[in-house]
Write a structure and sequence with these properties.
The chain is α/β, with parallel strands linked by helices and 212 residues long. The chain has helices spanning 12-23, 70-82; strands at residues 5-8, 28-32, 42-43, 46-50, 62-65, 93-94, 111-112, 117-118, 123-124, 129-130, 135-136, 141-142, 147-148, 153-154, 159-160, 165-166, 171-172, 177-178, 183-184, 189-190, 199-201, 206-209.
Length: 212
């Protein structure tokens, strides 16, 4: 599908991806956000149309979930699923500056912003967000709903679990795995596997607090 788009959540991420979509010539119908009564009537020229439960009013529109948190993104996708939105309706947005010479697969609903590099034989899951200048090298596997903040660098063969969050400019050594829902802080250097959810910071990365 390549029809008009609805953006779910009028977030900072939405404002970053909106010019990419508009620059491609695609029509953005507007935003659906449960906070719509508190938000401006238009953002970046796109109107505020209502809340998420209004999605059935737009049965022919493609959908892009622009929630910054992977866990919250997953909850919104589950909610949309209950409202009848299937996987085929999700757009995948890739900035034209992204380098993916090996045509590595990128899942539905994912957003890759300016300067992202994917080298060879990597797999990007569904509803993944990669902010500007992320580097994903050979044989990396990025599971669904993961978020890679600006400047993240992954060595070869890294595994990023479902819903994990990697902060700005952190680095992950080759062959290392990051557990689902784990958080890696800004500038951290991950040298060993992270086996459970929690927040990891520093050089080398160490556990700051564990997620229940």
């Amino acid at each position: 599908m390549s029809g008009p788009l609805l953006l779910i959540a009028a977030s900072g991420l939405a404002r970053e991806v909106l010019p990419v979509i508009q620059g491609s010539g695609r029509v953005v119908l507007g935003f659906l956000d449960d906070r719509h009564v508190e938000l401006p009537r238009t953002i970046g020229g796109a109107p505020m149309l209502g809340g998420i439960d209004d999605i059935p009013l737009y049965p022919d529109a493609q959908v892009l979930v622009c929630v910054g948190s992977g866990a919250d993104r997953e909850r919104v996708v589950a909610r949309l699923d209950a409202l009848g939105v299937d996987a085929e309706r999700y757009a995948t947005i890739v900035d034209p500056s992204v380098r993916n010479p090996g045509a590595c697969p990128v899942g539905v609903g994912s957003i890759l912003l300016a300067g992202v590099v994917i080298t060879a034989d990597a797999v990007i899951g569904a509803h993944v967000v990669a902010m500007p200048h992320v580097t994903i090298t050979h044989d990396c596997l990025i599971d669904d709903f993961a978020t890679l903040a600006a400047g993240v660098a992954l060595g070869g063969g890294v595994r990023i679990g479902r819903g994990a969050y990697l902060g700005m400019n952190c680095s992950v050594r080759q062959g290392v795995s990051i557990a689902p829902r784990a958080t890696v802080g800004m500038g951290a250097v991950v040298l060993r596997d992270i086996h459970h959810p929690g927040t990891w910071v520093g050089v080398p990365a160490r556990l700051l607090g564990r997620t229940p």
